[in-house]
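U., I forgot to send this yesterday:
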Amino acid sequence: MKRICVITTSRADYGYLYWIMKDIESSDKLELQIAYPCTHQCQEEIWNTFTNHNNHAVLGDMNGIYDIGQFLNRCLEVYDILKPDMILVLGDRFETLVAATAALLLNIKIAHAHGGETTTGSFDDNIRNAITMMADYHFTAHGKYTKRVKEMLMGSPAWNQHLHLDYDEYWTDKYKVYTIGSPGLDWLHRAKLLSKHELQQYVNIDLNQPFIVACLHPVTKELEHTKHCIVSFLTAIAGTDEQIILIQPNCDPENKKIKESIRYLKTGFDIKNDKRLCVVGNLDHIVYLSLLQYAEFMVGNSSSGIIESALFNLPSVSVGNRQAGRIRGSNVFDCPCETEAILTAIDRAREWNATVGKCESPYGKGDSSEKIVKILEELLC
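Result:
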């Protein structure tokens, strides 16, 4: 049995990693280990779902970038105790970079999912690409991302021709890069989404009336504009007629400014009726996806507005530059983080919903986790 330690840093990556962990747990060739910070929003669910608690490890606090030092030390300690044959990480969080760095220093193999992507408005690009350069195995969500990973690992085809290397043959032998789609979509085929009646306990708005799902994270390469952006964003959504489910931001720098502005919104910002607004800090992934199936549209800068939204044929307004460069479906409407621009994009999203209403997902069909685990079994066992 080869030991694979899956690192989940927050609810943001847990939904994408869940079915991978379930399939590793079910494998007769692989042994699942799980490591997560004690600040993980889903740690109780992880504990109750994956019951071999001897293979769980807590990585200490991770409230922000100033916790990176102790987080690295704890990763080194945990790997020394669990002795994994490989760690598996996903995406572009700074916590994920720390976990990958610890594995690299201890000569532990690294598998990385969702590499090769571009989000030009944040430092996620730099982090994601750094993890790609550390990793031994790569699972990408789209063929264009596979090509980008190969070029990062080997350099451009033109340069390799100069070195008299066969680009395709060489990278196939030396580097393991697989296009498997997004594992976050597996929920739609492997879990039953909740009804409006079942969802009602999680929110204090009437789900039988139209509502939108909104979330704004810090744009880490434009932090000087955070205050202006959150005011523009909140003013725009307050100007809509629909009810609002507003999700708190992640722990990137300047998230406190966004949270403070949201608290101000709750206590009297230009909202027509406080019963229209529901602010949530933590939702189970199945609850979140279930809300998306009933929402009128999404608005904000979360990656789910690009990836998951397409499978629900849900129009999504992508605000600002955080997700700039990511491949998207015809349901996504981009706009700058200015109030009038957001409201105009919302009108376009409503029109698309009324006239088109369907799109094709660029990120696969919801069978990625099974593919990943099968590949790992073949590579490691």
